[in-house]
Design brief:
The protein has three domains: 64-130, K homology (KH) domain (GMP Synthetase, Chain A, domain 3, 2-Layer Sandwich), CATH 3.30.300; 175-379 and 574-626, Metallo-beta-lactamase, Chain A (4-Layer Sandwich), CATH 3.60.15.10; 386-568, Rossmann fold, CATH 3.40.50. Helices cover 35% and strands 22% of the residues. The protein contains 21 helices and 28 strands. A seven-stranded mixed β-sheet has the order 12-11-10-9-8-7-28. The protein has a seven-stranded mixed β-sheet with strand order 13-14-15-16-17-26-27. The chain has a six-stranded parallel β-sheet with strand order 20-19-21-18-22-25. Strand 7 and strand 8 form a beta hairpin.
């Protein structure tokens, strides 16, 4: 038994605890005493306050009510308005999951209903939201977790032992450093190795989908400092492929440690990874990993909510903060040792309220080093107002419809597509735009379903609308799901004026390329770029003026003439130059060092120089494989 558990048990009544173990950084105690389980809250609270750890008491599996009887009680006690759809038991952990349309009603005022239920059935009830848009993808993820409950219990206990048993007492001189394994003076393949004498942690592990050479597409995991056998944890800040797309490869190579992220990030990144596998198969490309590798990643995922503090190694404590970028997108704050160093990795951030999200958080308990993106960090990178972009989008759509054309918008699977949906829905609601079909490829529909499953991660306005079915912007009748290549063909050949949202946003494979091939030669149609176009991507080439594109078709090449109107909509889930500067100087506390990355070389260098000159802050813009000593 771990020393910390022995110390905790000394503080509790004798013979009340039948078993104890870890679930990651959380400590779980089991009791066979039903009365102690129902009335212990004061004693457990005292232990939590003393040890400053998350400690949970559960009933021993031997005293839980029979599953069929417990399910009957749950369905009888739950108000009909809660919309309970399913009840799933995890007998190894004495947990019962209750899926409900309205979790607030199922939980009861200040948790009263769950407390009563808990005492009756002697299970720990956990309520999960049933999304308004039915998502088979979310169901599949939950099923993988339920089906591997026994493995998960052992895995989480092992993680806990690493955290609590692994601290080297005879410490040598302490130090902290980061090494850029990707995204150094470039965009794509984000990956940073964070090291102390005790810990090795990777922050993000992505793929540069725009890279023309395979050697530049993936993180430099063959670096001398990186050893997958010594990797303690992986942190994923958000779901975009350039930050999460390479994580399953780690499991293919034998990694079996934890992957930390928020719940929406887990669900969306899995969807994007599975979509990549589908694209590789469709294009007869070598698969970097398989569906089984993605499932392995799911089994090893540990989700944390915003501002939930968790130990992840013996000397590193992780806290996620809202980054304002996409749903579940996070900035990762690492507290090292006993106040040795405090590090913040913003990944991609938006320091301004967007259509979907609240602005990035800028207040933290402690902060010495900040790592910030520079995607739009150049002096000329200034974004127009949301109102200007609303008007531009409305005008482009109205002009295209008037001439009988179709609007194609290549979008990122998560974030940009939902931004555009809300923009169009708002125009239709206000009467500025006549109702028009807006087609979404299947993956975009699933991602939108995930947005409705986690409204607490969205801004107040959208959250309130999702809670009311008749006001949910994503359920507007203008939005149509495209589920097959046959339906895609019908849209192109038989449907009149419409808007089509399709991945990928950079025209690097996926349905957007198929639509482009079909629509490009008709000048009545319009192509609208609405996201960053990576260097070397087809999107960047078309945006730059190239109007004759060669596509491989078996051994031959098809030449596509782009006669459709090409437009650019400057909306972004990234901060522009002004917002990035404001974020740095409004951080509280202000960082002593700023590392600039995730931007084209000139933008990284320029942003680092400007921060240094204006704020007298030490800055650095490291290249890939360069290390920065922090302490």
């Amino acid at each position: 038994m771990a020393e910390i558990i022995k110390e905790i048990l000394k503080k509790l009544p004798e013979d009340k605890i039948s078993a104890a173990g870890f679930e990651g950084a959380n400590i779980v105690l089991y009791t066979k005493d039903a009365e102690f389980f129902s009335t212990n809250s004061g004693e457990i609270r005292k232990v939590v306050q003393e040890f400053k750890k998350r400690i949970e008491l559960r009933p021993d599996p031997s005293i839980t009510m029979k599953q069929e009887d417990a399910e009957k009680v749950i369905k009888e006690d739950m108000p009909e308005d809660a919309g309970v759809s399913s009840v799933i038991f995890d007998p190894e952990r004495s947990i019962v999951y209750i899926e409900a349309e309205k979790p607030g009603i199922a939980i009861g005022k200040q948790g009263a209903l769950l407390r009563e239920l808990r005492a009756k059935i002697l299970w720990v009830p956990v309520v999960q939201r049933l999304p308004p848009i039915k998502s088979a993808h979310i169901d599949n993820i939950r099923n993988v977790l339920y089906q591997n409950s026994d493995y998960r219990r052992k895995f989480l206990d092992k993680v806990g032992h690493r955290i609590y048993d692994g601290w080297v007492r005879e410490k040598k001189k302490e130090w902290v450093r980061v090494t850029m394994l990707g995204a150094g003076r470039s965009v794509g393949r984000s990956c940073m190795l964070f090291q102390t004498p005790e810990s090795n942690v990777i922050m993000d592990c992505g793929i540069d989908v725009a890279a023309t050479e395979s050697s530049e597409a993936y993180p430099m995991l063959d670096a001398p400092d990186f050893d997958i056998g010594k990797l303690d944890a992986v942190i994923v800040t958000h779901a975009h492929v350039d930050h999460s797309g390479f994580v399953p490869w780690l499991f293919k190579m034998g990694y079996r440690g934890p992957v930390y992220c928020t719940p929406p990030t887990r669900d969306v990144m899995i969807l994007l990874q599975l979509d990549m596998i589908k694209i590789w198969k469709g294009e007869n490309k070598d698969e970097l990993y398989t569906v089984e590798d993605v499932k392995e990643m799911v089994k090893h995922s540990i989700t944390l909510n915003y501002e939930e503090v968790s130990d992840i190694t013996p000397d590193i404590r992780l806290t996620f903060y809202n980054s304002g970028h996409i749903i579940g997108g996070s900035m990762a704050h690492l507290h090292v040792g006993n106040g040795l160093h405090n590090f913040m990795y913003t990944a991609d951030l938006k320091f301004g309220r967007s259509l979907l999200l609240e602005p990035a958080t800028s207040r933290f308990p402690r902060l010495e080093t900040l790592t910030i993106e520079a995607t739009y960090g150049g002096k000329t990178n200034t974004m127009p107002t949301q109102q200007d972009q609303d008007e531009l989008l409305a005008n482009i759509i109205k002009t295209t419809i008037k001439r009988g054309g179709k609007v194609l918008m290549p979008v990122l699977g998560v974030g940009r597509s939902q931004d555009v949906m809300v923009m169009i829905e708002k125009m239709v609601q206000s009467g500025e735009l006549e109702p028009i079909p807006v087609y979404l490829e299947g993956m975009l529909w699933d991602v939108t379903g995930i947005h409705t499953a986690y409204p607490e991660y969205l801004n107040r306005t959208i959250r309130k609308r999702i809670f009311h079915k008749d006001q949910n912007p994503f359920l507007n009748k203008i939005f149509k799901r495209v589920g097959s290549a046959k339906e895609r063909k019908q849209i192109v050949e038989e449907t009149g004026p419409c808007v089509i949202l399709a991945t990928s946003g950079m025209l690097q494979g996926g349905p957007s390329v198929e639509y482009l091939k079909a629509l490009a030669d008709n000048p009545k149609n319009t192509l609208i770029f609405s996201c960053y176009q990576g260097e070397g991507s087809l999107g960047r080439r078309v945006q730059g003026g190239e109007r004759e594109i060669a596509f491989k078709s078996g051994k031959n090449q098809d030449i596509v003439q782009i006669k459709m109107d090409v437009q650019k909509l400057e909306i972004s889930d990234h901060s522009d130059r002004k917002q990035l500067m404001n974020f740095v100087f409004k951080c509280n506390p202000r960082p002593k060092k700023v590392i600039v990355q995730h931007g084209e070389a000139s933008r990284c260098i320029d942003l680092a120089s400007s921060i240094h000159k204006q704020g007298r802050i030490e800055t650095v813009a490291p290249r890939i494989l360069e290390s920065v000593r922090l302490k």
